[in-house]
Amino acid sequence: MIKKALITGISGQDGSYLAEFLLSKGYVVHGIIRRASSFHTTRLDHIKFGSDEMKERLFLHYGDMTDSSNLNRVLEKVQPDEIYNLAAQSHVQISFEVPEYSAEVDALGVLRLLDAIRETRVKARFYQASSSELFGKVSESRQSERTPFYPRSPYAAAKLFGYWTVVNYREAYGLFACNGILFNHESPRRGENFITRKITLGIAQILAGKQDFITMGNMEARRDWGYAPEYVELMWKMLQAERPVDCVVGTGEQHSVREFTEAAFAYAGLDWRKYVKTDPRYLRPTEVDELCADPARANKELGWQPQVKFAELVRIMLDADIRALNLKPAGEGDALLRKLFPNRWWKID
Amino acid sequence: MITGVAGQDGAYLSALLLDKGYEVFGCDLSIGPRACWRLSYLGVYDKIDLLQADMADADALLKAVERSRPHEIYNLAAQSAPGASFQSPVEYGNITGLGFARLLEAVLKTDKQARIYQASTIEIFGYGKIKRLAADMPFHPVNPYAVAKLYAHWLGQMYREDFGLFICNGIMFNHESPLRSLNFVTRKITNAAARIKLGLEGELRLGNTDSKRDWGYAPEYVDAAWRMLQQAKPDDYIISTGQWHSVKEFVIKAFKVAGLDWQRYVKTDPDLLRPVDVPFAIGDYNKTRQVLGWQPCVKFDKLVEIMVNEDLARWQRHLKGETFPWDAISDA
C-alpha cells in the first residue's frame, strides 16, 4: 500500500530532507508552501527538476499555518496517512522582533492543524516539531523528556503552546500525535542566519575572497548539534512506533559557538581570530546558555543512534559550502559521508 | 486599565478600584450597555472610561494603552469556559493566549513602568498528582483554554525576567458570584434552583456531578489581584479557599437554600460531559496570606447562599414586572 505524507514547512532544511527520505521509501509526498513574490523552494529543486521518477510523487500546495480553511481543505484533498508539522518561524532571536507572528504560526498553527485533523476525521499520524528551546533555563545538565520546560523567548513560549496542544489532543481525542523535542540539527541546507551555517558559509566566502569577516553574538552559548538527515529519519521512526510517545532527540554532546568557530576555521586552515567580530546586535534579551540532550529514550525505544557528532558535522558542512563556491574542499567531510552513509538517500548536500 | 472589563471579575475589580479612588479605563470586545450589564448592576457603568478593544487586534490594544497611560493593567480578557474551549480552540488560543502577547508588546512600546496582573489559573496544572497545590507543581493543561493560559503564564514570567516588567500571575482557583456567567455550572445551578422554585422551570440537566472544585467568592479574589500589584516586587500567587466540594454538593446545598428536593429536578446529560475533565487539586494559599495579608472569608456554604438568594431575588423582581440589568432575560 502506498502511503501518503503531508509535510508543512517542506521548503525548509528538515522539510526538504524529510521529503527526500519519504520519497526514497516510496511515499507520495505532499507539501504546503507559502506564496511569496520570489521562489523559495530551492532546497527541493534537485527533486523537482531531477531525473528520478520520485518527482512524480511530489506535490506542492499553497497554504499557510495562519489559514484554517486552507489547512482543512488541503487535508480533505490529500487524506494523508502521516503529517509532519515542521512549519514555523524558527529563528529564536528574530522571534523577539515578531513575537505575535511567531505565536500565530508556531502556537496557533499547530492548533489549527490538529483541529483540522479532528474536523476532517483524517486518520493520520501526527508529528510535531517541538524544540530543545523549550528547556531554556535548564534545571538539569542533560535534558530528557522529564526535564521541566522554561521558555526564554517568544519562540520558545509559542513552541510550548504547540507542545501542550499536541498532548491535549492526544489525551482528549486519542489522536496518534507526538512531539519530537529535537535539539539543534544542522546541515549544508541550514538557513544562513543560523550560527553554524553562518560560520561555514562565511569561511567559504572568505576563502573565495568574497567576505572579510564573520560577525556573531554570544560565543559562549553551548548547544547540542547534530546532522539533520539523521534527525528526519527519527521523525519517521516516531510515527512508525506502536504508540505515540514524546521523545528527546540529540547527540548527548555539548559544544560552544566558540568551539564550533575554532574547529571550523582550523579545518579550513585559517586563524579564526583574524576573521571573527562580535556585535551586540546579535545578542538576545535572554540567552539560553546551554542545551544538551539525554537521548536515552530515542536510543533504546526507537533504536536511533546518531553517527555524526560535532567534529564530523563541522567537516561535512564546510566541505559542502566550499564546494558550492566552486572551490576544492579538503574532503574529510565528504569521506565521512561516504563511510558513514554508504546507502545515503539524500542526493545532494 | 482592565481588559475584559465586562466580565465578572472586571466588574468587581472596577468597583473596587473606583472605591479606592482610581481612574478606571475598561476594555472589552463589546462595551454597550447590554454587554456591560454587570457594570450597570454594580452602578459603575457611567463611572469608567470604556474603550472598545479586541484582544486579537494588536493595534487596538496599543491605542488603548496609549490612551489610558495606566499605572496598573489587569489582563482579565479571555474566552474563559474551559469545557467550551474544545469547540473553538483556535479562538481560545488567539484571545486568551496571544492576546496577552499583544498586550505585553503594547506595554513595552509605551510605559515599561506599568504594573501588570495576568489572570492565570489552576487549570494550567491539570492533573494534581499532589493534593496540595503549591506554585512549583508541574504543568499539565488538559484543554485548549488551559494550554492558552499556560502560554500566557510563561509569557508573563518571561517578560518579567527578560525585560524587567512588573508582572504578577494570579493563579486563581474557581471564583463565583451572582455575576458569574450562566454557562458556568455554579450559576447554572443557582439560576435553575431559583426558576424551579418559582415554577418557571421543571428540571436541571448537568454533566459530571462528581467533578470537584475549590470555589471562592469573586469580589475577594479581585482584591487579591489588586494587592499583588501593590507589593515592592512582582511575584506569582495562588488564590483559593483551600477547600473542595463536588458539583453534586453544590446542587444539594443550592436546592436546600431554595427549599427544594434536588433529586426531583436534577438529571445528568451525557452531552455535557467533557473529553477530559480536570481532576481536582487543593489550593495552598499560604504564601498569599503571609505576603499579601489576604484570606478568603466567603467559602462554600456562604457562597452558595449568596448566589441562590440573589438569583431568587432577581426572578422575583422580574415577575413583578421590574426591569434591571441582568443576563438571564434576553431583553433586560
Question: How would the blueprint of this fold be written?
Answer:
The complex is a heterodimer of chains A (349) and B (332).
Chain A: E1 4-8, H1 13-24, E2 28-33, H2 45-48, E3 58-62, H3 68-78, E4 82-85, H4 92-95, H5 99-120, E5 125-131, H6 154-173, E6 177-182, E7 185-186, H7 195-207, E8 214-216, E9 222-223, E10 226-227, H8 228-240, E11 247-249, E12 255-256, H9 257-267, E13 276-278, H10 296-302, H11 310-324, H12 332-340
Parallel strand pairs in A: 1-2, 1-4, 2-3, 4-5, 5-6, 6-11, 7-10, 8-13
Antiparallel strand pairs in A: 9-12
Chain B: E1 2-3, H1 8-19, E2 25-28, H2 37-41, E3 49-52, H3 58-68, E4 72-75, H4 89-110, E5 115-121, E6 132-133, H5 144-163, E7 166-172, E8 175-176, H6 185-197, E9 204-206, E10 212-213, E11 216-217, H7 218-228, E12 237-239, E13 245-246, H8 247-257, E14 266-268, E15 282-283, H9 286-292, H10 300-319
Parallel strand pairs in B: 1-2, 1-4, 2-3, 4-5, 5-7, 6-15, 7-12, 8-11, 9-14
Antiparallel strand pairs in B: 10-13
Helix pairs in contact in B: 1-7, 3-4, 4-5, 6-8, 6-10, 8-10
Description:
The complex is a heterodimer of chains A (349) and B (332). By secondary structure, chain A is an alpha/beta fold. Chain A contains twelve helices and 13 strands. Chain A has helices at 13-24, 45-48, 68-78, 92-95, 99-120, 154-173, 195-207, 228-240, 257-267, 296-302, 310-324, 332-340, and strands at 4-8, 28-33, 58-62, 82-85, 125-131, 177-182, 185-186, 214-216, 222-223, 226-227, 247-249, 255-256, 276-278. In chain A, β5 (125-131), α6 and β6 (177-182) form a beta-alpha-beta unit. Chain A starts with a strand and ends in a 9-residue tail after the last helix. Chain B has ten helices and 15 strands. With 332 residues, chain B is α/β, with parallel strands linked by helices. Chain A binds chain B through residues 68, 99-100, 103-104, 107-108, 111-112, 115, 148-149, 151-154, 157-158, 160-161, 164-165, 167-168, 171-173, 285-286, and chain B through 58, 86, 89-90, 93-94, 97-98, 101-102, 105, 138-144, 146-148, 150-151, 154-155, 158, 161-163, 275-276.
